[in-house]
Amino acid sequence: MMMDEQISGDQALERLRRGNERFVGGQALHPQQSRERREEVAHGQQPFAVILACSDSRVAPEIVFDQGLGDLFVIRTAGNVVDDIALGSIEYAVHLLQVPLLLVLGHQRCGAVTAAVEGGGADLPGQIGTLLRLVEPAVRATSGGTPDEHIANAVAANARLVAQGLVARSALIRQAHEERGLKVVAAVYSLDTGEVRFLEG
User: Fold this and answer.
1) What end-to-end distance do the CA atoms of the chain give, in Å?
2) What is d(CA 63, CA 91) in angstroms, rounded to the nearest whole number?
């Protein structure tokens, strides 16, 4: 994609879908990784999506969506939760870079969500407990079922709640969503298959 190409949120989402299909099928193209691309984006960027993903080492958005340099503006926190710094980073991409798509990406068997479901946050040192408390609304919203079902449901609920919370919490994101059609989507990545399941609506 050239630096001056403009695409819609729906087109951006479809581009992620196609990239993930290539990754799952073992047919990744590893696009936009040439010397020419590096030189093209050296003096400016125009990513087509901002992605808030978990910090988990197995969930690298550029890889699972088969994208390259300058394509994705990525923020990663454990449990894909949002503090003020993460929010400011997302607002930067939405407001100043005018990205058409904001994706919150949770993943199967997320350690932060698992710890919150198991109630171990109070025993963890440092700021880990603070992080887990941000996941607790999703845990409370999905109580019941087997432990594995609870974790899976809480992962999806957490991605949805974070996506909804970004629009509710940020005037800049809400304005972009309402006035220029910024598409806001939640999704869950499968560690087992590599597939991303989009949770539209």
Assistant:
1) 28
2) 24
Whole-angstrom distance, CA of residue 13 vs CA of residue 103: 9
Rounded Cα gap, residues 16 and 184, in angstroms? 13
Q: Per-residue pLDDT tens for 10-23?
A: 999 999 999 999 99
- Give just the sign of the alpha carbon dihedral 117, 120, 126, 129: positive
Residue 83 has, within 13 A of its CA and on its CB side, a CA count of 10
Closest among 76, 141, 69, 153 to 114, alpha carbons compared: 153
197: which strand partners? 188
pTM for the model stands at: 0.93
Give dist(CA 191, CA 152) in Å, integer.
Answer: 12
Sequence-distant (≥ 6) Cβ neighbours of residue 52 within 8 angstroms: 75, 76, 77, 80, 82, 86, 90, 102, 103, 104, 105, 162, 166
Structure tokens at 39: 């030189």
